[in-house]
Amino acid sequence: MIKLKDIDKYIDSRFQRMFILKGIELDVQQGEFVTIMGPSGSGKSTLMNIVGMLDEPSAGEYYFFDEPVHKMREKQKSDMHKNYIGFIFQAYHLIDELTVYENIETPLLYKGVGASQRKSMVAELLDRFNMVAKKDLFPEQLSGGQQQLVGIARAIVGQPKLLLADEPTGNLHSEQGKQIMDIFEKLNNEGITIIQVTHSEENAQRGKRIVRIADGAVVSDEKIR
Q: What digits encode the pLDDT tens for the residues 40-73?
């Protein structure tokens, strides 16, 4: 599903080249649940942004379902991201001016999904996450855990093939974090491929494989179940 070959990401200044990622090789099969771990500043979020087509590598090749992302134009990448990838952020990134319902609905508007189909898709997720009663509330009226649930609902409403989660429980207390990880396990069991970045060894054990990064390079890659 995902194949990264010799990916570099660097910033050139007048006197030197600073590498954020160096020689990254990574294969992810459809249906996997992969955790990326490493110290702060090791390049984890940059790697996620490249996989999610929000950023471009400086060098190397990226294949998504055998399609060469590194050769795509911006419009093609934007369409791939829109149709195949859901992104969940630590800081939720909900739109403050929109209700819970409208936040979840937003990706479907971008995809051009018809009104009645949008209504049923959003209603299904509100029901699944027990948020029907909160559909008309605004993000500031929700707890952190509830905001992250809305973030997950928004990320999966378009039925993506790949879910990217960058420190999804970083701002939550442990019980809320456990609830989010339970949802991830369930989604993975339903066939969604998940790549998460986390500092939590406990959350990492929920996945099936741990890739550790240090100084922009993969230092270990192990299956855990």
A: 899 999 999 999 999 999 999 999 999 999 999 9
Burial of 20 (0-12, 13-18, 19+ CB in 10 A): buried
- 162: phi then psi, degrees, rounded to nearest 5: -130, 130
The DSSP line for 24-41 is EEEEE-TT-EEEEE--TT
* Structure-derived torsion over alpha carbons of residues 8, 76, 90, 178, reported in degrees to the nearest 10: -100
Within 8 A by CB and 6+ apart from 199, the residues are 37, 167, 170
Q: Which domains does the chain have, with CATH numbers?
A: 30-58+83-223 (3.40.50.300)
Rounded CA-CA distance 187/206 in Å is 12
Rounded to whole angstroms, how far apart are CA atoms 173 and 176?
6
